[in-house]
Amino acid sequence: MDQYSASATETYLDAVKRTGLATLVGQRSAGAGGDYIIAPVMRLPASGMIFRMAADLDINPDGTFLELTGVQPDVELPSCPLPDRVDREILLKDPWIQAVINGLSTPEQTFPPSTNRNKDT
Predict the structure, then answer these.
(1) pTM recorded for the entire structure
(2) 16: CB partners within 8 A, 6+ apart
(3) How far apart are the first and last CA of the chain?
(4) CA–CA separation, 105 and 112 (whole Å)
(5) Residues 56-92: pLDDT tens digits?
(6) Backbone angles phi and psi of 26, in degrees to 5
(7) Strands 25-26 and 75-76, sheet pairing
(8) What is the distance between the alpha carbons of residues 51 and 32, in angstroms, rounded to a whole number?
(9) Which DSSP helix (H) or strand (E) runs through 11?
(10) Above 70 in pLDDT, residue 108?
(11) Residue pair 6/30 in contact by the 8 Å Cβ criterion
């Protein structure tokens, strides 16, 4: 996950984090959560103007607003560019993939044991 994870992807990340389904690895998401339903139609009584208005507010477990702060990964990795192409050789050199292969630690940064990693893996 990274700053380009948004909309329905961000809603999925939020669900994964809340349920503990997996360890989220990467960088904070965009803060642009998507709704599963279309916002209801509203009509103003005096002008007759019709518009849609989202009636929900997604709040993170720490009390912050999802649409302002996004979803924080369980393990934050340093920024790195996307690879030029996707094949085995290139992917095995990718810093994030290397971090996962090495047990979520890189030479630049060692991640604390307080991450929510499953001890059985």
Answers:
(1) 0.63
(2) 22, 24
(3) 20
(4) 9
(5) 778 888 888 888 889 999 999 988 888 888 899 998 9
(6) 140, -130
(7) parallel
(8) 20
(9) helix 8-19
(10) no
(11) yes
